Amino acid sequence: MVTVYFGGKAVSWAEAEKLFAEAARTQPVEFRDENGKVIATSVPPPGPDPDWVARITPEETARRMAEPFFTFEEVKKRLGWE
């Protein structure tokens, strides 16, 4: 037998359908066996991307690609590692 847990609380299968549709988007849902061992977890999708992801535009990428690049050997010389 498998029991469904929402927020650490066991719920009946009759309640599970409604709760899963509502809660699965915002919180993990656990499926446990008769011994209480977790056999599966439904994890909600991550939230929106952080601000820095939105700033990665094709124009910004092109700007950075136009900047000078250095090989690892050049960087080591600049840092005095050689």
Give the SSE layout.
Elements: E1 3-6, E2 9-11, H1 13-23, E3 29-32, E4 38-42, H2 51-54, H3 58-66, H4 72-78
Antiparallel strand pairs: 1-2, 1-3, 3-4
Which features would summarize this protein structure in a list?
alpha+beta, elongated, four-stranded antiparallel β-sheet, 4 helices
Strand content: 15-25%
**Which structural class fits the helix and strand makeup?**
alpha+beta
Order of helices and strands: EEHEEHHH
Largest sheet: 4 strands, antiparallel
Shape annotation: elongated
Calculate the mean pLDDT score and round it: 86
Q: What low-confidence regions span 5 or more consecutive residues with pLDDT below 50?
A: none
Describe the structure.
- It is elongated, with a radius of gyration of 25 Å.
- A four-stranded antiparallel sheet has the order 2-1-3-4, with helices on one face.
- By secondary structure, the protein is α+β, with helices and mostly antiparallel strands.
- The mean pLDDT is 86.
- It contains four helices and four strands; from the N terminus they run ββαββααα.
- β1 and β2 form a beta hairpin.
- The protein has helices spanning 13-23, 51-54, 58-66, 72-78, and strands spanning 3-6, 9-11, 29-32, 38-42.
- It has a domain at 3-42.
